[in-house]
Specification:
The chain has helices spanning about 40-50, 135, 140-150, 170-180, 195-200, 215-225, 240-245, 265-270, 285-295, 310-320, and strands at about 1-5, 15-20, 30-40, 60, 65-70, 85, 115-120, 125, 160-165, 185-190, 205-210, 230-235, 245-255, 275-280, 305-310, 325-330. The protein is an alpha/beta fold.
């Protein structure tokens, strides 16, 4: 079998492929034949030496993967041979709030999923909805669970409330889709006018071009009759405008921060009257609840492009440079 390894801060040239013997599962473990992976910003952060959680040397890369269970160790009772499963990025975070006791993560302190076969704790896998392909399921563990937690893990999203999503990355598109499914009114921003129709097709009632409208928070206020939105899913750290967009008693879910993000005046935080909630992905319980909604409503994840396993480096480069609309996926061959 082959797997891709990386060292923290090694850059894209540090992503190398190795050959290994196929491992065997121990007690409480399963062997998964990986069929697809997807990339997230965390993978680039690891290459750049900017990821905030521990990364072990020579780690098998990538948090996200989907495949099928081909062997089980003793004591496994959550899945069976042949089950189609996805990895749970934080295997020890079962439910409740996140803390450092839950910080072990696939593709970081634990070997990841960019490999042909992976041995995982049974706590680190979940069956995924039947209507999804392996490629679609592989997009769920990081971006979709983060979006679900951002929408539902704090004050909770109520039908008829309003949600603001920023851009067209994986978390933002999942948040848009989930919010629409749950009966919310969605305003989306984009830096590419050509994406407006695509965002509307996914459920956005209004789309703001933040290049043409740099003070987009003013437009958000106009679209909400001056009140602001109930939820902002901030993936870029544009906190000043997010706080100017949110309603009193609303919530800004802080998912990410781009380099050079400006500091925020504490007075603005106070006068916004909203909750700032940082998001560290989500728990197994979040994943289970999200899967139930996906199974009931049957949405399809948005995939920008699929690369073969032997072109994983090209997939990374494309994800880094192309500003994809949706997820970049790496597909592996069918099992022999």
């Amino acid at each position: 079998m082959q797997s891709y390894h990386v060292d923290y801060g090694a850059g894209l040239t540090g992503l190398t492929v190795r050959e290994h013997a196929v491992p065997e599962p121990g007690a409480g473990e399963v062997l998964v034949r990986i069929r697809a992976n997807s990339l997230n910003f965390r993978e680039l952060s690891i290459l750049r030496g900017q990821y905030p959680l521990p990364v072990k040397p020579d780690v098998v890369a990538v948090s996200d993967g989907a495949g099928e269970v081909v062997a089980t160790g003793t004591g496994v009772d959550r899945v069976r041979l042949g089950d189609r499963v996805v990895g749970v990025v934080f295997p020890r975070w079962i439910y409740g709030p996140f803390d450092l006791e839950h910080a072990d993560q696939l593709g970081g302190s634990l070997d990841g999923m960019l490999t042909e076969f992976a041995v995982l704790s049974q706590d680190a896998v979940l069956r995924f909805p039947d209507h999804l392909t392996f490629e679609e399921a592989a997009t769920l563990p990081c971006a979709a669970v983060t979006a679900w937690n951002a929408l539902t893990g704090g004050r909770g999203l109520r039908r008829g409330e309003s949600v603001l999503t920023l851009g067209s990355g994986g978390v933002s598109l999942f948040a848009l889709q989930f919010a629409a499914l749950l009966g919310a009114r969605v305003i989306a921003t984009t830096g590419r006018a050509a994406n407006a129709d695509r965002l509307a097709a996914l459920g956005a009632e209004h789309v703001i071009d933040y290049v043409a409208t740099p003070d987009w928070s003013e437009q958000v206020r106009k679209l909400t009759d001056g009140r602001g939105v109930d939820h902002v899913i901030d993936v870029a750290g544009t906190l000043e405008q997010s706080l100017r967009s949110v309603a009193m008693a609303g919530e800004v879910a802080v998912v990410g921060m781009l380099a050079g993000a400006a500091p925020v005046d504490p007075r603005l935080i106070f006068t916004a009257g909203a909750v700032l909630r940082p998001i560290a992905l989500g728990s197994r319980a979040h994943f289970v609840a999200m899967n139930e909604v996906i199974a009931a409503h049957r949405p399809r994840p948005v995939i920008d492009r699929v690369f073969p396993f032997d072109e994983a480096v090209s997939a990374y480069r494309y994800y880094q440079d192309a500003r994809p609309f949706g997820k970049v996926v790496i597909a592996q061959s069918s099992p022999a």
